[in-house]
């Protein structure tokens, strides 16, 4: 069920990003060319980040690290263990590769992705409910989460029937609210050149730093603070710097979501009609396949041209 939630989140992110990019002048469906790189590298990054931040679970005397046919190997993603911060790093590498291949601006794609990414993360958190994992400290609030006492993450010393904060539910609500905030802000100000993605980093980092701090699952510590809290604070700082720098360098909208010389030109229906008539005239004249006088390769429907 967790895997299905992640897949559903990915699909929603692709759909939302595709619609936003298309409205901004990108070729319909081009997001799939980037997703083919971003999704696999995001999964790899999520796994590697988890392994590196939980070294005691994998690197010990007699541990099976490399053999995927034995339990405990670092490759055995089906045994659990992924991290969103690692997926962001790996996914960013995939987006860079995809943007290079398609000609899209990296920051234009990141801005289009920002709300869809929050929606995907929100849907993925539903998987934590199915797995009864990543819950928070004990609580007596009405919405406290009931967890079986035989759960591997059950804190020792607590009485059976203790309720816990559903931190994954808090994050789900926070992420959906963040997606709405980004869309509303875009209607009031210019959030291009990576600034919308900067808002994403700030919003997610602030929420995650709090939710992470009240979780009870084991985590690597650094200076007495969970590693993921440090990562969340780093996301906030990067988001602030990104907005400030890009606001100074690029105060307005991009001239195009494509880099210069790689623009996609939308096919013109009138040109399609004219081309069809020209082809018919050439056939009537007995010159099969020869373009009509004055026609050029640039008028072929769907052909990208450089300006």
UniProtKB/TrEMBL annotation:
Keywords: Cell membrane, Glycosyltransferase, Lipoprotein, Membrane, Transferase, Transmembrane, Transmembrane helix. InterPro entries: Lgt. It comes from the Bacteria. Pfam families: LGT. Residues 270-291 have a biased composition (Acidic residues). Residues 292-307 have a biased composition (Low complexity). GO terms for biological process: lipoprotein biosynthetic process. Residues 262-307 are annotated as: Disordered. The chain crosses the membrane at residues 34-52, 73-97, 168-186, 193-211, 223-245. It is found in: Cell membrane. Its EC number is 2.5.1.145. It is a multi-pass membrane protein. Pathway: Protein modification; lipoprotein biosynthesis (diacylglyceryl transfer). A 1,2-diacyl-sn-glycero-3-phospho-(1'-sn-glycerol) binds at residue 125. GO terms for cellular component: plasma membrane. GO terms for molecular function: phosphatidylglycerol-prolipoprotein diacylglyceryl transferase activity. Catalyzes the transfer of the diacylglyceryl group from phosphatidylglycerol to the sulfhydryl group of the N-terminal cysteine of a prolipoprotein, the first step in the formation of mature lipoproteins. NCBIfam families: lgt (TIGR00544). Belongs to the Lgt family. This is Phosphatidylglycerol--prolipoprotein diacylglyceryl transferase. It comes from Agromyces intestinalis.
